[in-house]
Design a protein that fits this description.
Blueprint (H helix, E strand, L loop, with lengths): L3 E10 L2 E11 L4 E5 L6 H9 L6 E6 L2 E2 L10 E4 L11 H11 L4 H15 L14 H13 L5 E5 L7 H18 L2 E6 L2 H7 L2 E6 L2 E6 L1 H6 L4 H6 L6 E11 L2 E6 L6 E4 L10 E6 L5 E2 L5 E12 L3 E8 L3 E8 L9 E6 L5 E4 L4 E2 L1
Parallel strand pairs: 3-8, 3-9, 6-7, 7-8
Antiparallel strand pairs: 1-2, 1-4, 4-5, 9-10, 11-12, 11-14, 12-13, 14-20, 15-19, 16-17, 16-19, 17-18, 20-21
Helix pairs in contact: 2-3, 2-4, 3-4
Length: 361
């Protein structure tokens, strides 16, 4: 096991800079998830840690040792890719042992490592099958097992569940989480799926356009996002954003009216300085709407669609100005033919962002 440190890590392709001075500390045994939209640089950052991409500047350390110029095989890492990359002509057992055999590892130790990996992943009965005889989930287990037998100090996962169907993704998330608890090894996992990030991570790293936007525990990012981007990316369904304008600022509070519905006014507990008349955005999570009359202000909306998921319904609606909203209605059945509804907004559960997307606290 090992800790990992990134200090001002930069990646350039010619004159194009795609990673802009990343700084990050990962503790020994942590499960860290890199999350962000496509093209944000999360896989590039992972590949630089693995040694599959050269870094253009900065320093990467694994276990206290700078590895900028070290070969991937000398970094003490093992990587699991989106593609299973199994040898089709080999059995599962042969796929698991291949790397060790090529490195001249003793036969007895190789057999012991393969047996341990098979036991951990519960694939003992698959050992004599070939990849074409396995399901997608079974192939992914074998790919993970191939990493386990190397006994790395750091596991790297590059969107390993992208090729699986929804049910298998949930099952494999549980298995990867269980694997981390069992091995206690440092793991770095890349995904664009914030649900995977929230359910797997000890710590989430949110990236956008080559920059680290925020780092923290899943619920810390959910409850206290640093900016509008993080607030909208973390959480499912995502946060609603309502255009507003500052009406007044008091001592430790800001009074905001909705631009498209001026009758809706909220006084928020915000100490940040903001000019009266400036544009702001209010953020409200779907589950933070209440029943009419129960909050600090009521908001009328037009209903488009209601999705009933059993004990929860999601109402897709529009407020004045055609601003889309998602409203969670727990333990209720919204009438499919209801065209208009009123919901409550709570000042204490509303986030405020300036025109640039920075959080106003």
């Amino acid at each position: 096991m090992a800790d990992l440190s990134l200090k001002n890590v930069v990646k350039r392709y010619g004159s194009l800079e795609v990673i802009h001075g990343a700084d990050l500390e990962i503790a020994d045994g942590e499960f860290v998830v890199f999350v962000g939209p496509s093209g944000c640089g999360k896989s590039t950052l992972l590949r630089m840690i693995a040694g599959l991409e050269d870094i253009s500047g900065g320093e990467i350390s694994i276990g206290g040792k700078v590895v900028n110029d070290a070969e991937p095989t000398d970094r003490g890492i093992a990587m699991v890719f989106q593609s299973y990359a199994l040898y089709p002509h080999m059995t599962v057992e042969e796929n698991l042992s291949f790397g060790l055999r090529m490195n001249g590892n003793p036969k007895a130790d190789t057999a012991q490592r393969v047996k341990r990996a098979a036991d951990i992943l519960q694939i003992d009965e698959l050992m004599q099958r070939r990849p074409k005889q396995l399901s997608g989930g079974q192939r992914q287990r074998v790919a993970i097992g191939r990493a386990i037998v190397r006994q790395p100090r750091v596991f790297l996962f590059d969107e390993p569940l992208s090729n699986l169907d929804a049910e298998l993704r949930v099952q494999m998330r549980v298995e990867i989480s269980r694997l981390h608890k069992q091995l206690g090894t440092t793991m770095i996992y890349v995904t664009h799926d914030q649900t995977e990030a929230m359910t797997l991570a000890d710590k989430i790293v949110v990236l956008r356009a080559g920059n680290i936007e925020q780092v923290g525990a899943p619920l810390d990012l959910y409850d206290d996002p640093a900016n509008r981007f993080v607030a909208g990316f973390v959480g499912s369904p995502k946060m609603n954003f309502l255009p507003g304008k500052v009406i007044a600022q008091g001592s430790g509070s800001v009074t905001v009216g909705l631009k498209d519905d001026p009758g809706v006014v909220l006084t928020l507990p915000v100490t940040s300085s903001v000019e009266t008349g400036s544009d702001v955005t209010l953020g409200v999570r779907p589950e933070h709407f209440g029943n009419a009359g129960a909050g600090d202000a009521d908001l009328g909306v037009d209903v488009d669609v209601a999705e009933h998921l059993g004990n929860t319904s999601y109402v897709y609606a529009r407020m004045a100005g055609d601003v889309p909203l998602i409203i969670e209605r727990p333990e209720s059945r919204h009438s499919a033919d209801q065209q208009r509804m009123t919901v409550a907004i709570f000042a204490a559960k509303t986030f405020l962002f300036d025109s640039a997307g920075a959080r106003l606290r």
